[in-house]
Write a structure and sequence with these properties.
609 residues, alpha/beta, Glutamine Phosphoribosylpyrophosphate, subunit 1, domain 1, Rossmann fold, 3 domains, eight-stranded antiparallel β-sheet, seven-stranded antiparallel β-sheet, 19 helices
């Protein structure tokens, strides 16, 4: 949500800043702007809408500047207008600031500054911070002014600051909103996301909460907000440039759907050993005994990751026989959860920066729970604040609607459940059967993807419908929720996912002629029950779509349309049954003319409440 790029070096800053902003478009935004220092003064340009609009306004005066900051804004305080867009200036016009996050006490700070005679142009909380820095600035103390201002702030922030009086530095700081510094050859890039810097360098440092970086052409230093020096380890970003480019696909979402055979292989690589009959998860090795002895697991997550957690709940109770709950992070953090000795909190997040999930993790750890993380982004806040964890290793996910991160999360949860189950009660034979089935999943996903053309033909018949129903049982109940979420996110149609048995307890009243009812109806333990549910909606005129096991002719006779998945063991079915639903949502959205990779009102990483 929102994006920051800052550059200092010997190259033209505006081109690098604009390119960086384009790399951050997937995070969600509605306006953009940049500021450079040129001939001892600040030059600023802003635009509402896409980066292209800003690019058209950047004139020759930007050409020679070699230091600057830029931002994509997702509106919170104030409408998406040029006035509200970042960067914002202090009262003197010498200091420019870009900011991700929310300043919670901005109203009282603004009132204080207005009493001092400071005027405001925008409705934003960010302008208050810019003016507050200017309030403390005396002409030669920018670093101190930033620290003084941040000491008065309540809320979250990732910021980058430049000043016309000091054209050889960028000051960056963070609290609750990610920020990294990319280290090049006599050049440095400050960014909120590695995708903005990977074209230039893969060497980075990750700022932690309460830390500040002072960056110049000659190098950088890091300190706490109390001016205590901090030594940071330089880390290497694993992503490659081609991984964040379309590579011939029309949209990132489609590319990432088709990457899932390889991304699941990458997730398992070096972890599942068929020959030895073992699962090795290095990130939890030092806590294997504590995890095995745990009395209870609590998965906390948001959105798609919450659906993965629901699958994980089934897996853990089925394979490891450990009581498990899946909690919405946004609810968990604001109540008084019971976390007794032996409880493990597991935070699931693609970005590792989801604000609600991070807050829930901190709440649980403060109460003494062991914390583990399941994240995709190396070096992210959740990865650094958990006791142990497992990376997805599925590669960068650019599409806002999560696809390969979901299958990566379910794969990790399946490996973790089987790992713990083997240490508790799973026999060697049953464990071997499980990991053999898991090893076959990537090839089976490839087979499901071959139906993309047929799924599009079905989508053509249904794309005009405004209300959809998604129904599943057991392991496929969370898949129904995720399928409904996918079509909501990118097609803007109303969809409900629910356990199939719950339909008759109220929602069946919504079913009318032609309403698409999508069933995940594999030949599993509740097969006969799902058949009955299909008959119930058909009797009321619904158009029935089913995801079925290959060779199932009975449901094919019952339903209007069917997509098939290969036979696998029931705990692993979600890794296959979700694929047709991802493709269905994608094709419906394309046919409806929606912006697939930048759906309205959504952001890739929700780093504010």
């Amino acid at each position: 949500m929102c994006g920051i790029v800052g550059y200092i070096g010997s190259k033209t800053a505006s081109g690098i800043l604009l390119e960086g902003l384009k790399r951050l478009e997937y995070r969600g935004y509605d306006s953009a702007g940049l500021a450079i220092i040129n001939d001892g003064g600040l030059v600023i340009e802003k635009a509402v809408g896409r980066i292209l609009n800003l690019e058209k306004k950047v004139g020759p005066i930007f050409g020679s500047a070699t230091v600057g900051i830029a931002h994509t804004r997702w509106a919170t305080h104030g409408a998406p207008t040029e006035t509200n867009a970042h960067p914002h200036l202090d009262h003197s016009g010498k200091i420019a600031l870009v900011h991700n996050g929310i300043i919670e006490n901005y109203a009282s700070l603004r009132k204080y500054l207005e009493a001092q005679g400071v005027g405001f142009e925008s409705e934003t909380d960010t302008e208050v911070l810019a003016k507050l820095i200017g309030h403390f600035y005396t002409g030669d103390n920018l670093e101190q002014a930033v620290r003084s201002a941040l000491s008065e702030v309540q809320g979250t922030y990732g910021i980058a600051v430049i000043c016309a009086d000091q054209p050889d530095r960028i000051i960056a700081a963070r609290k609750g909103s990610p920020l990294i510094v990319g280290i090049g050859k006599n050049e440095y890039i400050v960014a909120s996301d590695a995708s903005a810097i990977i074209e230039h360098t893969n060497q980075v440092i990750y700022l932690s909460d309460g830390e500040m970086a002072i960056v110049s052409r000659e190098g950088f230093r890091t300190i706490t907000l109390d001016a205590v020096p901090v030594t940071k380890d330089v880390q290497q970003v694993e992503w490659k440039l081609e991984q964040i480019e379309l590579g011939g696909f029309e949209h990132f979402m489609l590319k990432e759907i088709f990457e899932q055979p390889e991304s699941v292989r990458m997730c398992m690589r070096g972890r599942v050993n068929l020959r030895e009959g073992t699962i090795h998860l290095g990130g939890i090795a030092n806590y294997a005994r504590e995890l095995t002895r745990a009395h209870r697991f609590v998965f906390t997550a948001c959105g798609t990751a919450w659906h993965a957690g629901l699958v994980g709940e089934y897996l853990f109770e089925d394979l490891a026989r450990i009581p498990t709950e899946t909690e919405y992070a946004s609810e968990f953090r604001y109540r008084n959860p019971v976390l007794d000795d032996g409880t493990v909190i597991c935070a699931i997040s693609q970005s590792g920066e989801t604000a609600d999930t991070l807050a829930a993790l901190r709440e649980a750890r403060d109460k003494g729970a062991l914390g583990i993380g399941i994240v995709n982004t190396v070096g992210s806040t959740i990865a650094r604040e958990t006791d142990a964890g497992v990376y997805l290793h599925v590669g960068p996910e650019i599409g806002v609607a999560s696809t390969k991160a979901f299958t990566g999360q379910v794969t990790v949860l399946a490996m973790l459940a089987a790992f713990l189950g083997r240490r508790k009660h799973l026999s060697p034979a049953n464990f071997q059967n499980f990991i053999c089935a898991l090893d076959q999943i990537p090839g089976q996903i490839e087979k499901v993807l071959e139906q993309s053309g047929e799924i599009r033909r079905v989508a053509e018949k249904l794309a005009g419908r405004e209300n959809w129903l998604y129904l599943g049982r057991g392991y496929n109940y969370p898949v129904a929720l995720e399928g409904a979420l996918k079509i909501k996110e990118i097609s803007y149609v109303h969809a409900e996912g629910m356990p199939a048995a719950e339909m008759k307890h109220g929602p069946i009243a919504l079913v009318n002629k032609g309403m698409p009812a999508v069933f995940i109806a594999t030949h599993s333990s509740q097969y006969d029950k799902i058949l009955g549910n299909i008959e119930e909606v058909k009797a009321r005129g619904a158009t029935t779509v089913a995801v079925i096991t290959e060779g199932d002719s009975e449901i094919c006779r019952q339903c209007d349309f069917c997509f098939t998945v290969p036979k696998t063991i029931e705990p692993l079915e979600p890794l296959l049954t979700i694929i047709p639903l991802q493709l269905l949502a994608y094709h419906v959205a394309v046919l409806r003319g929606c912006n697939i990779d930048k759906p309205r009102n959504l952001a890739k990483s929700v780093t504010v409440e």
